[in-house]
Amino acid sequence: MIHRPRRLRSTPIIRELVAETRIHSDMFIYPYFVVPGKNIVHGIDAMPGISHFSIDELLRNVEKGLKVGVNKVLLFGVGEEKTSDASSSFSDQSIVSTAVRALKKQFGDQLYVITDVCVCAYTTHGHCGILDGPHIHNDQSVEVLAKMALSHAQAGADMVAPSDMMDGRIGAMRTLMDANKQEHTAIMSYSIKFASAYYGPFREAADSAPQMGDRKSYQMDFRNGREAMREAMLDETEGADVLMVKPALAYMDVISKLRENTNLPVACYNVSGEYAMVKAAAAKGWIDEQRIVTETMHGFARAGANLIISYHTRDLLEKKWL
Ligand code: PBG
Ligand code: ZN
Questions:
Q1: Would residue 7 count as lying in a domain?
Q2: Protein residue with least CA distance to atom 14, ligand 1
Q3: Using one digit for the tens of pLDDT, what is the confidence trace for 21-77?
Q4: Are 104 and 156 in contact (CB under 8 A)?
Q5: How far apart are CA 145 and CA 118, in angstroms?
Q6: Quick one: which ligand is closest to 129's CA?
Q7: Does the annotation count 72 as an active-site position?
Q8: Does any domain span residue 24?
Q9: Does the beta carbon of 80 lie inside 6 Å of ligand 1?
Q10: Catalytic annotation on 193?
Q11: Nearest C-alpha neighbor of 49 from the set 207, 196, 201
């Protein structure tokens, strides 16, 4: 007898019946870059379709997105004063906190607001922490990051997402937020964040490239899958609600391994460089964008991602690619 797996692939109906992976619009989170000012919608060169928005324009754009189901957003602040102590990052008047208050006032619980917590767009040197000579002072950085998370929570953020990769930040944030009656604010940790060339376009967008050196003393070495689990388990112990793997495409094995090692929701971040490559090839007519994007998203879900952060979210939902 010959084994015939093709029997279950013979028509669309049977293929749908036996499909192992399904993705849903509810899984997607859409990033936004927010800048000070008014009437600003400024496209980002290396990320076609993605722009910097001033708060007035952000409100308009989010309202449109909500109509097609984009109801979870991740906010990045850009264009604030840069100092060595990153003090503009935790001000209650920061661009992110101001945007959160405006979004929550207009949309309430119709919109789930997540904020990126990191100081690289707020420091003169562009590193994700506070410098002590040539080194990053871990515990001083954690103090500032915790204050930043608290300020976002107090502005009304539903979830904060620390992307700095300092040691002990999840525990410090949880403790500070709880001590200030923000125990309901969730934490999605960028637990496993690799030092990656795939962040290139983002650093232009966020004006957050390090002025000297690189991020290898805090972001992870991409050769290390076991250490990745160690990082994630630490964050789980410290009180993270969601664990994230970033970037996504080159790290599907890490997503899969993490899914097997935790009972928390697992997120992946389909980052700027992954997006830029698809957009560039699609613009040249070298690939079919819709098919590439949906195949990739199914890949993330099959690997074990429960939440997907992606710049493609708007296209996926608006153009009904799912
Ligand atoms: C800042 C931050 C980065 C990204 C998210 N938060 C860049 C970096 O660490 O250099 C990358 C997002 C993307 O590339 O889409 N800590
Ligand atoms: Zn950073």
A1: no
A2: 199
A3: 999 999 999 999 999 999 999 999 999 999 999 999 999 999 999 999 999 999 999
A4: yes
A5: 7
A6: 2
A7: no
A8: yes
A9: no
A10: yes
A11: 201
